[in-house]
Amino acid sequence: MIAAVVIYSRLVSPSYNEVQLLRDKREANLKLFAEQKGAFDEATRVLNEYQGLTQIQDNISMVLPNKEEVPSIINQLQGLAKINNLNIESLSLQYPPLKTVPADSLIQPLGTVRVTLRLNGDYRNLRPYLENLETNIRLIDVYSLNIEGGGVPGKTELIYSIVLDTYYQ
Amino acid sequence: MAQYTRSINEKFLNNKLAVGWPWRMFIFTSVMFLAAVFTYLGLAFIYKPYLQNSLSDAESKLSNLSLQISPESQKNFMRFYSQVSNLRSLLAKHITTSKLFPLLEASTHQKVVYSSTTFVSEERALRIEGFAESYEVLAAQLTLFEQAPWVKKVVLDNSSLSGKTIKFGARLTVKNEAINL
What we know:
CATH topology of the largest domain in chain B: Gyrase A, domain 2
Strand order of the largest sheet of chain A: 1-2-4-3
Strand order of the largest sheet of chain B: 1-2-4-3
Mean pLDDT of chain B: 87
Number of domains of chain B: 2
CATH architecture of the largest domain in chain B: 2-Layer Sandwich
CATH architecture of the largest domain in chain A: 2-Layer Sandwich
Largest sheet of chain B: 4 strands, antiparallel
CATH superfamily of the largest domain in chain A: Ribosomal protein S6/Translation elongation factor EF1B
CATH superfamily of the largest domain in chain B: General secretion pathway protein M, EpsM
Oligomer: heterodimer
Largest interface: A-B, 58 and 60 residues
Low-confidence stretches of chain B: none
Structural class of chain A: alpha+beta
Distance between the termini of chain A: 76 Å
CATH topology of the largest domain in chain A: Alpha-Beta Plaits
Number of strands of chain B: 4
Low-confidence stretches of chain A: none
CATH class of the largest domain in chain A: Alpha Beta
CATH class of the largest domain in chain B: Alpha Beta
Strand content of chain A: 15-25%
Shape of chain B: rod-shaped
Helix content of chain B: 55-70%
Order of helices and strands of chain B: HHHEEHEEH
Radius of gyration of chain B: 50 Å
Radius of gyration of chain A: 32 Å
Largest sheet of chain A: 4 strands, antiparallel
């Protein structure tokens, strides 16, 4: 009887506790696996859909590229100025610091290239130029716009200082 | 004599009891002992290894799950997701400055000319400097601004006589809906 009690208390009881722990751990893992499997299946479905969206993906990369792509900005601004009969007098670039995002965020920080542009030309051409900028494939926001040289009789050519923001991530 | 027989019977009966109980007790404790031993052996050498195998199997399945999607695919997808998300927030605040000019032209008095205008989109602030033919014209111009549905607020900063005209500077706050997409 004493041997039975000793075996129970020294061997059976600790083993039972160990087994109980393992069972709990296994249950937790199985539950986690089921959840992860659900998430994995969903991710696989989304990834498969995403593989079919290459055209949209390319278009989005033109609207919001993955790097600054400064030559492309200059080309677009010059091209739009030319078709609207405006002349670029000067162009300078600034790189404001990246907007911070939480460390665990899936969203990458957004970078801005700030372009300061000085143009001259007829006032009638300014509005279509601005419309072209606003609907340009690469997203451009007009941060500020200054028009100088008005109020002089007979003078139609004005000076425009435009500060534009373009983005990348 | 009867007295003597009874005492012998009692003695024998007592002897039976003394021998039978320890035997049963022995069987009971042996069964208990064996049950404890088999339970221990079962737990320690059969059930515990089974659970451990099952646990490591579940863990390897879990770690294999993430390996089934290539890191390149994960990276590309996350970049795409981030682009869409960033784009959505940028488009929500994208404004169309070009809409402002027809509105300003429509709200300008015929006898007023602008020498300079400055628009700062973040503050929705339009700063105007110009010339009015007279103070009556300037007052009429300010009234036009105040009545314009796209103007939230008008402030006349300064005005002075400049030759035969009135030179003035004013600040307008533009309503969001006038220039939002």
